[in-house]
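Chapter summary example.
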Amino acid sequence: MAKLLLETLKGNPSNSVPFWFMRQAGRYLPEYREVRATVPSFMEFCYDPAKATEVTLQPIKRYGMDGAILFADILVVPDGLGQKVWFETGFGPKLEPVVTDEAYNRLSLDGFHDKVCNVYETVRRLRCALPEDVTLLGFAGAPWTVATYMIGGQGSKDHAPARQLGYGNPQLFAKILDILVEATAQYLCAQIEAGADVVQIFDSWSAALPEPMFDAWVIEPTKAIVEKVRSKHKETPIIGFPRLAGAMLKRYVEETGVTGVSLDTGVPLAWAAEEIQPHVCVQGNLDPHLVVAGGDAMVQETLRILEALKGGAHIFNLGHGFVPETPPENVALLSETIKNFRR
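The structure predicted for these 343 residues follows.
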């Protein structure tokens, strides 16, 4: 059975527009919260194949998306490399910062796959459990975005610790990016080998970097990962998501070699249709907060996006992930609106 999303990514769009949503398995669903309550640790949740499979399937059963994205977290990679990672309730992720050569030397690719192997088991279970026409997406965080957590020890608004290390100790910073490139490429390849049809690289914090740093810290590591994955899995589509890349988005597409690119909420659609869509499949880009509001405003903006991008390969998605307060009934209306649209 043909997979609409996969075929669209390969440049064969049909009359219907495929869709999936970032963070489609998450806290906005009551059934997700029920499962999450049974596991004390979020990292333990990510490494539990039964529970991770269950919550990945929940939105597919509810809404019938064309794509199911593996439930995991981008911090699985530093955890697999040996950095201490944990989540604090009400705060988010915490890590022991890597800001010295001594801390860097504690990272290792040895044993990486043993540490994260349960993620691959989740992919295998999903491959068996999903309907035949649903595309399975694996994913990883991009090196720059993951490095901001590894260096800062937590999330931040301006990623100052990572920027300052990149400027002040470029040798150590380069080593961190290099080990992330290798680990991420291996991680994505293993997901593909376990059954993922597509992989996405999330660079959630690529905004506002100076041009030389965007080239060195975002484009070059992503390009290296794409090349490494393609050397083993030539036919597997790769989606990039350089969130808030602005004017650098076009260069990102041209230089990384991604198959598709996810557009954040701020990308002008007429520009994307003219400058980006002729070269790669585009994905996006509804504001997640419109799904909180719902109603006619959400429907009209959804139709505007669908109309603006109907001239080429387009996967409908959000400009970023669902927020926890999203009403499930609004997701149902959004899903039906997309399903009823014809190019």
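To summarize the output: Residues 142 and 266 are 20 Å apart (CA to CA).
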